[in-house]
Design brief:
This protein has 429 residues and is of the alpha+beta class. The protein is built from 12 helices and 26 strands. The chain binds zinc ion (2 copies). The site of one zinc ion (ZN) has 6 residues, from helix 9. The site of one zinc ion has 6 residues, from helix 9.
């Protein structure tokens, strides 16, 4: 049986006093209360990561919670474990001699099936088993990528956030030294410990039309898709079309770096099996140091570089190298960050006094805002730390619109600082 903590039920005597601690002092959010009239109780849920705390308030002096509080005082009332098959779980417990309050599952809130196990079998704790309804299960277990095409006006430039679907990477590798207990609250892992990541290239329309990064592309086989949990139902072709563009409208393709989740879409395999540039009219701009690293991989970065994503660009003669931080088109310049890889670069976009930044893997998701939250994949994490801290200062100061290429839910946002604390305010258009 696989059981996941759903919530911890706490019987309270004085709800306002309890909220003063759990909501105000701890800073947890409280959801709208749910009345369970059959039990004469009102439940207040406070999400904590993937589980919740449930404050139980009696609505009548004859409710079980009122009696519980009267007898023992307020405190831990029960824990609820989520199971996939509650009948199988009950049968298994019964076979092992556990004392059950409910021999058969009964209907709980929101279409769930529930059953209680007696505290005498659970070492003094009342245990509730819960099998959520199918509808309730889907959103919690399968977070979705926001693949909406979004347009942002930045002075005279138009920025269009497009999407090449999603993939999954090991959550531990995505957060480096940060313990799972912390990162799992921000990025719930799947049963293989992988977290959901978007791939969101950015279009800049000004004098010319530029595409920054191009996602994964469609040259990979089924085994690759399985390993990385690839979902490209909403892909770059589709979202470009929704943006009113075709691949032939792109004049410049700019690479933050050449890892497969950024450069895979640079090329396509044609009917004859030959790999060629996808954007037929475009010049591809790549940092020379990154090109050298990508074409001479070592044991530590080899898995990230797939030659078919970039070597055909050289063969087709469409590459332009940049050696330094410089302007690529009016309003758009590149800046080396290093860290993730030696020549990783971000893109700074400026027009009419407004600034935006496409930070690529310097800060792949909004969860990476915190200084020590640095990917284990990074080759030079201390360089990431320095570059990130300097960038965040600048982003706060200049009120930059920051694009998060891999964040599943937040394509872009502003970094705000209040009382020494930083947070991201999503910008959805
Ligand atoms: Zn990368
Ligand atoms: Zn990446």
């Amino acid at each position: 049986m696989k059981a996941v903590l759903d919530h911890v039920g706490i019987a309270v005597r004085d709800l306002e006093a309890a909220l003063a601690f759990y909501r105000d002092a701890l800073g947890l959010e409280v959801e709208a209360p749910e009345d369970v009239s059959s039990q004469r109780v009102r439940a207040h849920f406070l999400p904590v990561g993937q589980a919740s705390l449930e404050l139980l308030e009696a609505t009548s002096s004859d409710s079980a919670i009122a009696k519980y509080v009267e007898k023992r005082g307020p405190g831990l009332h029960h824990i609820t474990l989520r199971v996939d098959d509650i009948s199988a779980a009950l049968a298994q417990l019964k076979a092992r001699g556990a004392r059950l309050v409910d021999e058969h599952p009964r209907a709980g809130a929101e279409g769930a099936l529930v059953a209680f196990v007696h505290p005498s079998s659970a070492h003094g704790v009342l245990v509730e088993l819960k099998q959520p309804s199918l509808e309730a299960r889907r959103p919690s277990l399968e977070p979705q990528v926001d693949s909406t095409v979004r347009r942002y006006q930045l002075g005279d430039l138009e920025l269009i956030s497009v999407c090449d679907g999603s993939f999954r990477l090991d959550g531990g590798a995505m957060f480096g030294v940060v313990p799972k207990a912390l990162w799992a609250r921000h990025a719930p892992p799947d049963d293989r410990n992988r977290i959901l990541m978007a791939m969101r290239p950015l279009i800049v329309r000004g004098m010319r039309t530029m595409l920054i990064d191009a996602g994964l592309g469609d040259k990979d086989d089924e085994k690759f898709h399985e390993i990385y949990g690839v979902d490209r139902a909403r892909n770059l072709d589709r979202t470009l079309q929704e943006a009113g563009l075709s691949p032939d409208d792109i004049d410049i393709v700019l690479a933050s770096h050449l890892h497969f989740d950024h450069a895979g879409g640079f090329t396509v395999r044609d009917a004859s099996g030959r790999v060629r540039p996808k954007f037929r009219r475009a010049q591809y701009v790549v940092r020379r140091g990154e090109w050298e690293d990508a074409t001479h991989p070592h044991e530590r970065n080899r898995a990230s570089y797939i030659a078919d994503n970039f070597v055909p660009l050289a063969e087709a003669g469409v590459l332009q190298f940049v050696d330094d931080d410089q302007t690529i088109m009016p309003g758009v310049r590149v800046r080396r960050t290093g860290g993730h890889c030696m020549h990783h670069q971000m893109v700074i976009i400026e027009s009419a006094g407004k600034t935006a930044a496409f930070v690529a893997d310097l800060m792949p998701t909004t969860a990476h805002l915190s200084a020590p939250w640095i990917m284990g994949y990074d080759l030079y994490p201390m360089d990431t730390l320095a570059a990130k801290k300097a960038f965040i200062e600048e982003a706060v100061q200049k009120n930059m619109l920051v694009f998060f290429e891999h964040d599943p839910a937040v394509p872009a946002g502003y970094i705000r600082e209040e009382n020494g604390k930083r947070r991201i305010v999503p910008a959805l258009s």
